[in-house]
Design a protein that fits this description.
Largest sheet: 5 strands, antiparallel
Helix content: 25-40%
Distance between the termini: 92 Å
Strand order of the largest sheet: 3-4-5-6-7
Number of helices: 1
Shape: elongated
Number of strands: 11
Structural class: alpha+beta
């Protein structure tokens, strides 16, 4: 209040009010920024768990429909019904699976060739449009999981051994009993899946 009795704020009062407002704003911004960071982190975690659940469900469903049906590759060679192989850059598990007939094609075969491939830190699901592939046969590819640092894929053979490749020598028609998949992620977590194969 000034000397003449007029109501108002002095310069010092205004500066104090501005300082208080600045402190409150800084506290509020810090809290909001932290809340947004937590929300983003929770969304990332939720998306990761959703991806893992979908990958598990898809793999379990496909393995429950494995069929002992050999196929031909794009060069005309016979490929066993169930194959695990490794290259310098990929770990591949491919097999013939059953399932519902394509929509609108009730008399078409329900068999399809699918593969699960770990490459470049990703778990991919692949499906070919034709069971026996001609050169140039198209395929569908979906990325199921990311940030995979290491993978160990094994199957249980009928004689009770876990092995890293399939089929066994001299037994191309056999199917494994169980698939064991262990993945180590970039954040250090380990995922272990043990899934039966259809008989």
């Amino acid at each position: 209040m000034n000397a003449a009795g007029q109501k108002g704020f002095t310069l010092i009062e205004m500066l104090v009010a501005i300082a208080i407002f600045a402190v409150v704003s800084a506290i509020a911004y810090t809290g909001l920024d932290r809340a947004m960071a937590i929300r983003a982190r929770l969304q990332t975690v939720r998306h990761a768990w959703e991806a893992r659940a979908l990958a598990y469900y898809r793999l379990r469903t496909d393995l429950a429909q494995v069929r002992p049906q050999t196929v031909r590759d794009s060069l005309g060679g016979l490929v066993p019904a169930f194959v695990i192989r490794r290259t310098a850059r990929e770990t591949i598990m491919s097999f013939t699976a059953g399932g519902p007939a394509p929509f609108g094609r009730a008399h078409a075969s329900d068999l399809r060739r699918v593969a699960y491939v770990v490459t470049g830190g990703r778990l991919e699901w692949r499906r070919w449009q034709a069971l026996n592939r001609a050169p140039g046969t198209r395929r569908v590819t979906l990325v199921l999981m990311r940030h995979i640092r290491h993978v160990r894929l094994q199957v249980l053979s009928p004689d009770g051994r876990f092995v890293r490749s399939w089929p066994l020598a001299g037994q191309p028609a056999q199917l494994p009993l169980t698939v064991r998949l262990v993945m180590r992620l970039d954040d250090g977590r380990r995922i272990r899946w043990l899934l039966p194969v259809a008989r």
